[in-house]
Design a protein that fits this description.
heterodimer, A: alpha+beta, Nuclear Transport Factor 2, Chain: A, about 45% strand, B: alpha+beta, 6-stranded mixed β-sheet, 4 helices, 6 strands
C-alpha cells in the first residue's frame, strides 16, 4: 500500500466509526486483527473491539475524530487526533489520542491506541477494566 | 517506501542516551527549536525545560529502561512505542506504556509528542502517588 492508499484507509476507518457504521469497520479489519488499548494493557480481537464499539455508542450522543494528523510508513500508519465527545446531556469533552496501525492489502491487521484515562468523563465499564 | 535508517538511528541514540544517563548525547539529539508535548497536561514544554527534567531524572532515578521498542520511520520523523521502566530511589520499579512521536529536521528532533496514561500513575510513580 502506498502513502495515498494508507491515508485513504485511515480516513475511511475513522469516518465509518463516526457514522456508527460497524459493518464498514468490520470490512476494514483483516482476519485475525488485534486491538491493543494502553488503558487496559489488553489485546482484544476484532469481534471484541466491534462489540465494544457498538456498546460504546450508547454512552455518548456523538463522537467525532478531528484534527487528524496522519503519517504513513511501510506497512502502516500513526495518526494523532482529537476525540470530541458530546454526552447525552449535551456536555462536551475532548481526549487527545494517538493510534498506531499496521495494515496489509487494504485492511488493518493491528491497532494500538493510546489515551489518558485520567481525562475520561466516565469510567470504563468494569468488564473492560479486567 | 524506503526505510529511513538515519531517522531510526536518531531514535535509538536518543533513548539509549537517556538510559545511559549520557546528557551530552541526549542534548545533541534536540534541534535548537525543539518543543515537547505531553498527553498528561496537553502543554508544549520548551527544549530547556524538557532537558532539565530529563537531567533531573538522570540524577533522581537509579535506572530508566525503554523496553520492547517498536520503531517506524515516516517522512519527517518516527514513532516509537515502548514500555518505560523507572527504578526509583526507593527501589520501586514504575512502568508506563508510551507512544513517542518525533518530528525531525536536520537529523535532530524538532518536535515531539508523548502519549501515556497518567490515569495509571500509581503503577508508574508508586503506591503513595
Amino acid at each position: 500500500m502506498d502513502d495515498g492508499e494508507t491515508r485513504a484507509l485511515v480516513h475511511r476507518f475513522f469516518d465509518a466509526i463516526e457514522r456508527r457504521d460497524v459493518d464498514e469497520v468490520a470490512k476494514i479489519y483483516a482476519p485475525g486483527m488485534a486491538f491493543w488499548f494502553n488503558v487496559t494493557g489488553r489485546e482484544t480481537t476484532a469481534a471484541d473491539n466491534l462489540a465494544t464499539m457498538s456498546e460504546g455508542y450508547k454512552r455518548h450522543r456523538r463522537r467525532t475524530y478531528n484534527d487528524r494528523i496522519v503519517r504513513t510508513f511501510e506497512g502502516g500508519f500513526v495518526v494523532q487526533y482529537t476525540l470530541n465527545i458530546v454526552q447525552h446531556d449535551g456536555r462536551t469533552s475532548s481526549l487527545w489520542a494517538c493510534l498506531v496501525g499496521l495494515c496489509r492489502d487494504g485492511r488493518i491487521t493491528r491497532l494500538d491506541e493510546y489515551l489518558d484515562s485520567s481525562k475520561f468523563s466516565q469510567p470504563l465499564p468494569a468488564a473492560k477494566q479486567n | 517506501m524506503r526505510k529511513d535508517w538515519a531517522t531510526i538511528e536518531l531514535c535509538d541514540r536518543f533513548f539509549d542516551a537517556i538510559e545511559r544517563k549520557d546528557y551530552d548525547t541526549l542534548e545533541k539529539c534536540y534541534a535548537p527549536e525543539a518543543i515537547v508535548w505531553h498527553s498528561h497536561d496537553c502543554l508544549y514544554q520548551s527544549r530547556e525545560s524538557n532537558l532539565a527534567m530529563l537531567k533531573q531524572g538522570m540524577t533522581l532515578h537509579k535506572k530508566m529502561h525503554f523496553a520492547d521498542r517498536r520503531v517506524h520511520a515516516f517522512e519527517g520523523g518516527f514513532v516509537q512505542q515502548h514500555t518505560l521502566y523507572v527504578t526509583r530511589a526507593n527501589d520501586f520499579v514504575g512502568q508506563m506504556d508510551v507512544c513517542f512521536i518525533g518530528y525531525t529536521r536536520d537529523g535532530m528532533i524538532s518536535r515531539a509528542y508523548e502519549y501515556f496514561d497518567i490515569g495509571q500513575r500509581e503503577k508508574f510513580l508508586g503506591p503513595s502517588a
